[in-house]
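User: Sequence in, structure out. Go.
Assistant: Echoing your sequence, followed by the structure tokens.
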Amino acid sequence: MTSHGCDPAAAFRAGVEARDLDAMAASLADDVRLFSPVKFRPFEGKAAVVELLGVLLRTFETFRYVGALAGDVEPAPSAGRVGGAPAEPYRDQGPAHALIFRATVQGKEIHGLDLLHVGPSGLIEEITVMVRPLSAAHTLSEAVVRNFEQPAPTA
């Protein structure tokens, strides 16, 4: 695989485009969180996020990045208001990359964005996935649930 130096977003993108789960995982911090468009609470920790990414690789019939943007973004707080507990204060803005994609799931076209927040570790610490239209988000959600229930194919 091509070396991307200190650019975890480029390494993540290359991993996705090569369908290389190990390369994608190498760009993630151990405490990475992934905010899904169909689940209120994030997937937390590298193992959970990598498992989801593997399911997504099996779910998408087609997938390609069609654009990218970069800038600073304020990451989400670590915890929401659960049981009346106050959320962690917001942290300073940090480097982020928005990777715009088009994909197909069960014949439905999906347009989306992966927002990658790079933390002080130099790795991706937060991923926020947004998809449209709503009907495609529902189709994606149902397909992901089905693929979670099926064992991953062995090589």
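User: And one key feature?
Assistant: Strands lie at 28-35, 43-44, 62-73, 94-105, 108-118, 124-132.
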